[in-house]
Amino acid sequence: MDITTVLFYLFSAVLLGSSFMVITARSTVHAVLFLILAFFTAACIWMLLKAEFLAIALVLVYIGAVMVLFLFVVMMLDINSTGVREGFWKHLPLGGLVGAVIALEMAAVLMGGFRLSSAPELSAAEMQLGNTKMLGIAIYSQYLYPLEIAALLLLVAIIAAIALTLRSRKDARTQKPSEQVKVKKGDRLRIIKVAPTVEAIEPDATAAGEPGVVKP
Q1: SS3 string of 91-118?
Q2: How many CB atoms sit inside 10 A of residue 50's CB?
Q3: Helix (H) or strand (E) holding 157
Q4: Per-residue pLDDT tens over the stretch 169-200
Q5: Which of 19, 67, 126, 139 could connect to 122 by a Cys-Cys bridge, CB 3.0–4.6 Å?
């Protein structure tokens, strides 16, 4: 057993442990930190598999941007997870059953790719292209339609998220651009005259040498 195999099993064990802690941690901040550890360990495994582009993309995009955003949101919202965790053990068998079915389906789909005895041989021209360029050629040639379907699903998800935020609520304040365009000057500004409520005080006639105050 070489050092690459030892590191693979070590990183895999850390990845499985951190993934389990994500769903079992009592604190949401700790769950986010364990998720960051899981992503970083997955990036290390991709580096061992010579998928440098995917490893760097995972670190820069997910750990450097998405997970930092999640961490700030969780810390600012101060979510109380006590109510969310009610009934966890009650629904655990059903959740475990659903997870097992999903794992079996993924295994049935991916087992064909795990039956390779050795890695496919690459030509000299393909080796000169580099990992990133070969990945781009494969995505935009062999996997173009799955890429378009994934982009369409992401577009639908963005539209759904915007639609959920625009739902009418009592505590939400919304703007109507059509009414703002039709507004006139008289609707926004009105000049009124207000009579003085306090009259000017007359000067004391006996006070000598003091300037008098003229009543308006």
Answers
A1: HHHHHHHHHHHHHHHHHHHHCCHHHCCC
A2: 9
A3: helix 144-165
A4: 676 677 778 888 888 877 777 788 877 776 66
A5: 126
Does residue 114 belong to any structural domain of this protein?
Answer: no
- pTM comes to 0.55
d(CA 45, CA 49): 6
Number of domains within the chain: 2
**DSSP letters for 31-64:** HHHHHHHHHHHHHHHHHHTT-HHHHHHIIIIIII
Residue 69 lies in a domain: yes
86 found inside a domain:
no
Residue 60 lies in domain: 1-81
Q: Which residues in 88-121 are b (16+ Cβ under 10 Å) and which e?
A: eeeeeeeeeeeeeeeeeeeeeeeeeeeeeeeeee
